[in-house]
Amino acid sequence: MPFYEDIKVGQRGELGSFTFTAELIKKFAGQFDPQRFHLDEEEGRKSLFGGLTASGWHVAAVCMKLMVAYAQRHARHAAERGDEVAIGGPSPGFRDLRWIKPVLAGDTVTFFSEVESLRASSTRPEWGIVQARNTGTNQRGELVFSFLATGFVPRRNAKP
Amino acid sequence: MPFYEDIKVGQRGELGSFTFTAELIKKFAGQFDPQRFHLDEEEGRKSLFGGLTASGWHVAAVCMKLMVAYAQRHARHAAERGDEVAIGGPSPGFRDLRWIKPVLAGDTVTFFSEVESLRASSTRPEWGIVQARNTGTNQRGELVFSFLATGFVPRRNAKP
User: In Å, what is the CA distance from B6 to each residue of A7, B1, B14, B117, B118?
Assistant: First the structure.
């Protein structure tokens, strides 16, 4: 994770890609979203989705997983360069989460994050607040998933 | 799931309760959100959260799980009464998801859903569109989680 001072509005990063196999779709659905079109190919085909479809929460959780891995790679590279490593703060939530198209079994979704706004926290001088639009695009280039995340990022040289 | 015609603005249902044990918190985090304060008690204590904390996506996924179980109980009861069973449609997304307070290891969260608005779909006459505020409250009565969900509900006697 970069420090507040190193972030610019418009910065865009590729978080990574993930293939939603039928096996992984059913596993997540069995744990958290056991609706018929997430559990069974035939039920998926009969549904509005037209096939076995990943739970929207599965798509969101995979995006989170890739965001964390991206931040951890960033921290490792900073440490390897001998730079100070920024440790991110909590997220108060997000807005406008949209499942734009179904993610069907076998689809590969590539996730991106783009900084939309940036400001210093008025109450916590050691933190900045960043808003980023996180999106997922499938192997046909179609946008399938989008949300606006808000998170705290540490300021350089401002210890709590 | 009820039919569009049976839903009223202001209706509130208790979806169910869930205890976020340390074991379940770490299991979800290992799969989807491997940040230190979701994986380790000591790291949690040193963090802003003050203890091992459930991933916000874990809280959201558990809410989904309880919503599905609630809808399935509703369908079973309708079938037992000999009523027609409504089958819900997809959700296009949600808004304003907020993680208001941390959910710490051992916390029990009770989830509720309250209908905020209801309208017929202008393009799909067999569906209505419902917006519901879903919330989670911990064992101390504190609101910890909230989001506004949008979903399609079937209209009675309107076959696709």
Answer: 50, 10, 17, 13, 11
Q: Which residues of A are less than 8 Å from B32 in CB distance?
A: 61-62, 64-65
Q: How far apart are CA B120 and CA B153, in angstroms?
A: 9
User: Nearest residue of A to residue B88 by CA position?
Assistant: A35
> A4-154: what fold?
Thiol Ester Dehydrase; Chain A (3.10.129)
Using CA atoms, how far apart are residues A105 and A107, in angstroms rounded to an integer? Answer: 6
Indicate whether this complex's ipTM tops 0.90.
no
Inspect the interface and report whether the beta carbons of A65 and B95 lie closer than 8 Å: no
Which residues, in sequence order, are bridge partners of residue B133? Answer: B114, B148
CB-closest option in A48, A64, A94 to B33: A64
> Are A62 and B89 in contact (CB < 8 Å)?
no
- From the CA of A136, how many Å to the nearest CA of chain B? 14
Q: Spell out which chain B residues touch chain A, with contact meaning CB-CB distance below 8 angstroms.
A: 31-35, 48-49, 55-57, 60-62, 64-65, 68, 72, 89-100, 102
More confident residue, A5 or A86: A5
Position of tokens 């900045």?
A128
User: How are strands ordered across the β-sheet holding A127-137?
Assistant: A12-19, A108-120, A127-137, A143-154, A93-99, B93-99, B143-154, B127-137, B108-120, B12-19
d(CA A33, CA A59) in angstroms, rounded, equals 12
| Report field, pTM of the whole predicted structure over 0.90 | no
- Percentage of chain B beyond pLDDT 70 is 98
